[in-house]
Amino acid sequence: MISSHTLIPLFPALALATGLNGHCPPLGPVLPAPHHPSTHPSISTASTALRALLDDLTTPYQTSALAIGVKSIHEPDLLFEYTHTPPQRDAKGVQEVDRDTVFRLGSLSKVFAPLALLMLRDRGVRLEDSVTKYVPELKGLGKQAREEGSAVWEVDWEEITLGGLASHMAGIPSDLITDITPFVNQSAYGYPEANSSRLLGCAGFFGTPACNKTAFFEHFGQRPPAQVPFSPQTVYSNIAFPILSFVVEAVTNQSYVDFVHDNIWKPTNMTRTFASKPDDSLGFIPANDIWWPADLGFEGPNGGYFSTLTDLHRLADAILHHRLLPPVQTRKWLKPVTATSSTGLLIGQRWEIFRAENITSDGRLIELYTKTGDLISYHAILVLIPDYDLVVTVLVAGPGGVGEAGTAETTGIMSRVVEMLVPAVEEAGKAEAERGYAGRYVDRDTNSTITFAVDDNGPGMAITEYIIRGVDVPTTDPGSTLPPATPPRLDPPMRYRLYPATGSKSEREEAWRAVGTRATAEEVEMRDGQLVWGMGSCVTWAMMDRVTYNLLARDHFVFGRGEGGRVRGVEAVGYGVRLEREGY
């Protein structure tokens, strides 16, 4: 269990930081992700503190195993690693947990089905397609409904799309094999006598055989819809992912497991990832555990797979390096589809997107693309943080209980790892940006000077000097309004921050965008206080690329690289000026 003292951030001074300071950065990275974070001293400091916290946390664990890995996709080895082997464990499994120890993934297994579908795009598969295009047998399930044709009792499978299934927006019943009828004393809980025609006779646990695809088609139509498709009320679905596996099989004429192995696991060298139980000697098995060998049958794509820290980081590397999907498809995949009743959680095509504003010193919004998984005694979380090209993985196994690790403890551990290491990675990124981009840029022919600085007064990079053709831009910039013929001297002057335009770069050039404001933090707070939604005055998304001259945007900057990849100059595109970096 996580005690209250473990909730204290590593950097309590963050609470006193200047925050966004009136600035509204675009969503996403505000500086390039560091390529060598492990060399920055902040990483060593944070790692030492995090290791001490985890030592304190795991001291009472007698039955819970833990494996944690943090990795930058730009470095070959883990940035941080921590494992804990409990004294009580099954002798058949590993006796010392490490990065190659196999754990059950639970619902983290779900991430492979949407990825497999996206890889079938060249075969004509689209997420907007009805699932019945590929699995027409689903239409026959209506005959099992309590009332055919009723939106209350029958799923209209023609309306169910692949994208709806992948994002928990289909509204179909949640599951099949988790029906508790065979496992409870009905009268003790107020249930009626069991209906023998509704007994599955399978589940894959508690001594029952695994259910197969036939069991699904014989029984699933008896389950009423949870919602209509694309209802405001998102409903978590386990069964959607076996159904998506049926689609993959129909399109490829391969078993789903073979397709995933050949096209995802093998190309990424995930050599210790399995669709069924591997040899006991490869995995951590909790003492007296019954879930390590559990076979989920046709619901394996929902939560039945096994993997390791090493393999999950290989998967994440491949995703963020665009080795499995083209860059635009990867970026599209890493986007939310719908919201939930939690302001901190959005849902993607099998991503749970946690939104945090308390990680970095500027308090900006950071999105964590996660997939969690739980199978009773196994708990897993994979976290992709694209803003930093960072991956966090937490794998836990144990029977739970007081003083041990369970679902809540696993997500708590992940949160501690993120809040303690991400600020350190941020510092590493600032140091690299300072060396790589900051400085004074000059074009003497046009009397133009721009100075960039990395500071703690806001996100991104500050423009501290901005003179174009002898004109002081911050004191003459009217913002997004049509400028008067003769610019007045404006007070206070505009304050600018520069941010990378994600992915908009080549070997020699790299696009950035400037965002300006005159408002102070106090003025922003006052404006936001007049609105019923949070951060209502933060509308950078609607203001970028708006003011143009000669059809070129005023906020557009392009850094140019010379020999050895060093930044040698910058072009203020809208002003038609190229400036050279002093000291290049």
Q: Can you characterise this structure?
A:
The chain is 23% helix and 20% strand. It is α+β, with helices and mostly antiparallel strands. The chain has 3 domains: 57-106 and 255-415, DD-peptidase/beta-lactamase superfamily (Beta-lactamase); 114-250, Beta-lactamase, CATH 3.40.710.10; 437-581, no CATH class. The protein has an 8-stranded antiparallel beta sheet with strand order 2-1-10-9-8-7-6-5, sandwiched between helices. The protein has an 8-stranded antiparallel beta barrel with strand order 11-12-13-15-16-19-20-21. The protein has a two-stranded antiparallel sheet with strand order 3-4. β9 and β10 form a beta hairpin. α1 runs antiparallel to α11 and α2 (112-118) runs parallel beside α6 (240-252). It is globular. Residues 1-18 have low confidence and may be disordered.
Low-confidence stretches: 1-18
Helix content: 10-25%
- What's the total number of strands? 21
What does the average pLDDT come to? Answer: 94
Structure annotation, total helices: 14
CATH fold call of the largest domain = Beta-lactamase
Shape: globular
Share in β-strands: 15-25%
Tell me the CATH architecture of the largest domain: 3-Layer(aba) Sandwich
**The CATH homology group name of the largest domain:** DD-peptidase/beta-lactamase superfamily
Spatial extent as radius of gyration: 27 Å
Termini separation comes to: 54 Å
Taken together, the total number of domains comes to 3
Q: Which strands sit side by side, in order, in the main sheet?
A: 2-1-10-9-8-7-6-5
Largest sheet: 8 strands, antiparallel
Secondary-structure class: alpha+beta
Could you name the CATH class of the largest domain? Alpha Beta
